[in-house]
Structure prediction request, 245 residues.
Amino acid sequence: MHSLIVVSGTGTSIGKTHVAATLLRGLAGGRRTLGLKPVETGVTSGLGADATVLREASTFHVTPCPQPYAFPDPVSPHLAARRVHRIISLGPILETVAKALPNVDLLLLELAGGLFSPLAPNLLNIDLVRALPPSHLVLVAPDRLGVLHDVLATLAAARSLAVTPSALVLSPPLVPDSSTTLNAPELALLTQVPCFAIPRMASEALCSHLSFTPLLALLLEPTRDDPGPLANALPPPPTQTPCRA
Prediction:
């Protein structure tokens, strides 16, 4: 079975790429793994910085997978696309996933920004998640004061659209506060979703750290009885609905 993992978050610059690269290293174990970031901003030439980190953490490098959308301005994807007179749509992203997935055992997608960040005026990241759908969705948030609200609000909105993450990952903030290291058990209790707080360390070391290995075990578990994401055919893009605030 081919596994598709999506990594998103409650916002941007919160450690999603670090978590995604660590997942790729930790889940390798003889598997063909490939990490992609289909939408990235702040890319002036070639492959984006985050996409490069994911490629370096992957074990499958036979077929290059160009980014469907890479834009120079380091702003929200919908705005970066607008500035170069383009509009992001699901079709090219789903096509990239459909082509890559049969060649690997595990495909990981890192989304740009947060789970409800806009990709286009009438398209959100969560619409992409619903169109796939992934074997597992991992939601990353910073382990700092305010994260309880941010995660609860994101989960409430996601669950209203029948989307629930398999796991929450709290990344260490640059400046810890009095709530850091205490938020994970509270979120696990409040959300009933497994929550993992990780220490600040290099991806190569973190992937075998005792705080991270239970997450790896969880993501290796099957979540549904169907053949897996995009197993039979490329699904048509869903009807785009007005952007939700």
The chain has one domain: 3-219. The chain has a mean pLDDT of 91.
